[in-house]
Protein backbone atom coordinates (compact mmCIF):
# COMPACT_ATOMS: atom_id res chain seq x y z
CA UNK A 1 0.00 0.00 0.00
CA UNK A 2 1.38 3.37 -1.02
CA UNK A 3 -0.30 5.77 1.41
CA UNK A 4 1.56 8.77 -0.06
CA UNK A 5 0.07 8.11 -3.52
CA UNK A 6 -3.36 7.39 -2.06
CA UNK A 7 -3.41 10.65 -0.13
CA UNK A 8 -2.22 12.59 -3.19
CA UNK A 9 -4.86 10.92 -5.36
CA UNK A 10 -7.60 11.82 -2.86
CA UNK A 11 -6.32 15.40 -2.71
CA UNK A 12 -6.38 15.51 -6.51
CA UNK A 13 -9.99 14.25 -6.62
CA UNK A 14 -11.05 16.95 -4.14
CA UNK A 15 -9.32 19.62 -6.21
CA UNK A 16 -10.82 18.28 -9.43
CA UNK A 17 -14.32 18.23 -7.95
CA UNK A 18 -13.78 21.79 -6.69
CA UNK A 19 -14.44 21.06 -3.03
CA UNK A 20 -11.04 21.56 -1.41
CA UNK A 21 -10.63 24.96 -3.05
CA UNK A 22 -13.56 26.55 -1.22
CA UNK A 23 -11.88 28.71 1.46
CA UNK A 24 -14.57 28.42 4.14
CA UNK A 25 -14.84 24.65 3.81
CA UNK A 26 -13.36 21.94 5.98
CA UNK A 27 -10.87 20.98 3.22
CA UNK A 28 -13.91 20.11 1.10
CA UNK A 29 -15.49 17.61 3.49
CA UNK A 30 -18.52 19.82 4.16
CA UNK A 31 -19.29 21.00 0.62
CA UNK A 32 -22.56 20.50 -1.23
CA UNK A 33 -22.57 20.38 -5.02
CA UNK A 34 -22.56 23.98 -6.20
CA UNK A 35 -20.32 25.17 -3.37
CA UNK A 36 -22.61 25.72 -0.39
CA UNK A 37 -21.61 24.22 2.94
CA UNK A 38 -23.29 21.82 5.33
CA UNK A 39 -22.51 21.73 9.03
CA UNK A 40 -23.04 18.27 10.49
CA UNK A 41 -21.34 15.00 9.71
CA UNK A 42 -23.94 12.77 11.42
CA UNK A 43 -25.28 11.68 8.03
CA UNK A 44 -25.07 12.53 4.34
CA UNK A 45 -26.86 15.91 4.04
CA UNK A 46 -29.27 14.48 1.41
CA UNK A 47 -30.03 17.89 -0.10
CA UNK A 48 -31.15 18.05 -3.71
CA UNK A 49 -29.39 21.04 -5.27
CA UNK A 50 -30.54 22.49 -8.58
CA UNK A 51 -27.45 23.52 -10.53
CA UNK A 52 -29.28 24.43 -13.74
CA UNK A 53 -32.31 23.30 -15.74
CA UNK A 54 -30.52 20.10 -16.76
CA UNK A 55 -28.61 19.24 -13.60
CA UNK A 56 -29.90 18.44 -10.12
CA UNK A 57 -27.74 16.55 -7.67
CA UNK A 58 -27.40 15.36 -4.08
CA UNK A 59 -23.59 15.23 -4.35
CA UNK A 60 -21.89 16.19 -1.11
CA UNK A 61 -18.59 15.97 0.69
CA UNK A 62 -15.00 16.15 -0.43
CA UNK A 63 -15.51 13.59 -3.18
CA UNK A 64 -19.09 14.60 -4.10
CA UNK A 65 -20.84 11.37 -3.18
CA UNK A 66 -24.50 11.08 -4.19
CA UNK A 67 -26.89 10.40 -1.31
CA UNK A 68 -28.23 7.25 -2.98
CA UNK A 69 -24.79 5.63 -2.67
CA UNK A 70 -24.07 6.68 0.89
CA UNK A 71 -26.36 4.13 2.57
CA UNK A 72 -24.77 1.30 0.59
CA UNK A 73 -21.22 2.32 1.55
CA UNK A 74 -22.21 3.07 5.14
CA UNK A 75 -23.40 -0.51 5.52
CA UNK A 76 -20.60 -2.10 3.47
CA UNK A 77 -17.82 -0.29 5.34
CA UNK A 78 -19.60 -0.22 8.73
CA UNK A 79 -19.42 3.56 8.97
CA UNK A 80 -21.03 5.58 11.76
CA UNK A 81 -21.27 8.93 10.01
CA UNK A 82 -20.25 11.11 7.06
CA UNK A 83 -17.08 12.40 8.71
CA UNK A 84 -13.76 12.96 6.93
CA UNK A 85 -12.46 9.43 7.67
CA UNK A 86 -15.74 7.95 6.41
CA UNK A 87 -15.62 10.00 3.22
CA UNK A 88 -12.01 8.96 2.63
CA UNK A 89 -12.90 5.29 3.18
CA UNK A 90 -15.74 5.53 0.67
CA UNK A 91 -13.51 7.17 -1.95
CA UNK A 92 -10.86 4.47 -1.50
CA UNK A 93 -13.58 1.82 -1.83
CA UNK A 94 -14.81 3.44 -5.04
CA UNK A 95 -11.26 3.46 -6.42
CA UNK A 96 -11.00 -0.25 -5.54
CA UNK A 97 -14.28 -0.94 -7.31
CA UNK A 98 -12.89 0.73 -10.44
CA UNK A 99 -9.93 -1.66 -10.18
CA UNK A 100 -7.63 1.33 -9.96
CA UNK A 101 -6.18 1.09 -6.44
CA UNK A 102 -3.17 -0.96 -7.56
CA UNK A 103 -2.53 1.67 -10.24
CA UNK A 104 -2.72 4.45 -7.65
CA UNK A 105 -0.31 2.60 -5.36
CA UNK A 106 2.09 1.88 -8.24
CA UNK A 107 2.03 5.44 -9.58
CA UNK A 108 0.21 4.58 -12.82
CA UNK A 109 -1.55 7.91 -12.58
CA UNK A 110 -3.17 8.29 -16.00
CA UNK A 111 -4.42 4.71 -15.98
CA UNK A 112 -5.96 5.23 -12.52
CA UNK A 113 -7.70 8.44 -13.60
CA UNK A 114 -9.06 6.77 -16.72
CA UNK A 115 -10.43 3.84 -14.70
CA UNK A 116 -12.12 6.22 -12.25
CA UNK A 117 -13.63 8.60 -14.82
CA UNK A 118 -17.04 6.96 -14.51
CA UNK A 119 -17.14 7.91 -10.80
CA UNK A 120 -15.93 11.53 -10.86
CA UNK A 121 -17.58 13.74 -13.46
CA UNK A 122 -14.67 16.19 -13.38
CA UNK A 123 -12.26 13.53 -14.69
CA UNK A 124 -11.58 13.44 -18.42
CA UNK A 125 -13.10 10.65 -20.46
CA UNK A 126 -16.72 10.40 -19.31
CA UNK A 127 -19.95 11.58 -20.88
CA UNK A 128 -21.65 13.30 -17.95
CA UNK A 129 -21.71 16.61 -19.80
CA UNK A 130 -20.02 18.50 -16.99
CA UNK A 131 -16.71 20.39 -16.97
CA UNK A 132 -13.80 17.97 -17.18
CA UNK A 133 -10.31 18.82 -15.95
CA UNK A 134 -7.31 18.31 -18.22
CA UNK A 135 -5.13 15.33 -17.29
CA UNK A 136 -2.11 17.68 -17.15
CA UNK A 137 -3.82 19.81 -14.48
CA UNK A 138 -4.76 16.71 -12.47
CA UNK A 139 -1.20 15.42 -12.69
CA UNK A 140 0.20 18.75 -11.51
CA UNK A 141 -2.09 18.74 -8.45
CA UNK A 142 -1.29 15.06 -7.73
CA UNK A 143 2.49 15.56 -7.86
CA UNK A 144 2.24 18.80 -5.86
CA UNK A 145 0.43 16.76 -3.20
CA UNK A 146 3.36 14.31 -3.07
CA UNK A 147 2.15 11.66 -5.48
CA UNK A 148 4.70 9.73 -7.49
CA UNK A 149 4.36 8.65 -11.11
CA UNK A 150 6.10 5.79 -12.89
Task: Describe what you observe in this structure.
Helix content is 42%, strand content 5%. It is mainly α and 150 residues long. The protein has one domain (3-144): Lysozyme, CATH 1.10.530.10. The protein has a two-stranded antiparallel ribbon with strand order 1-2. Strand 1 and strand 2 (55-57) form a beta hairpin. The chain is globular, with a radius of gyration of 14 Å.
Which helices and strands occur, and which strands form pairs?
Elements: H1 3-17, E1 49-52, E2 55-57, H2 67-76, H3 84-97, H4 101-106, H5 109-116, H6 135-144
Antiparallel strand pairs: 1-2
> Helical amount among residues, as a percent range?
40-55%
Q: Can you list the strand order of the major beta sheet?
A: 1-2
Q: How many strands, which pairing sense, and closed or not: the largest β-sheet?
A: 2 strands, antiparallel
Topology pattern, helix = H, strand = E = HEEHHHHH
What form results from the Cα inertia axes? globular
Low-confidence stretches: none
CATH class: Mainly Alpha
Mean pLDDT over the residues? 95
Q: What is the number of helices?
A: 6
Rg on CA atoms, Å: 14 Å
Structural class: mainly alpha
Number of strands: 2
Amino-to-carboxy terminus distance: 15 Å
CATH fold name = Lysozyme
Which CATH architecture would you pick?
Orthogonal Bundle
Give the number of domains: 1
Give the amount of beta strand, in percent: under 5%
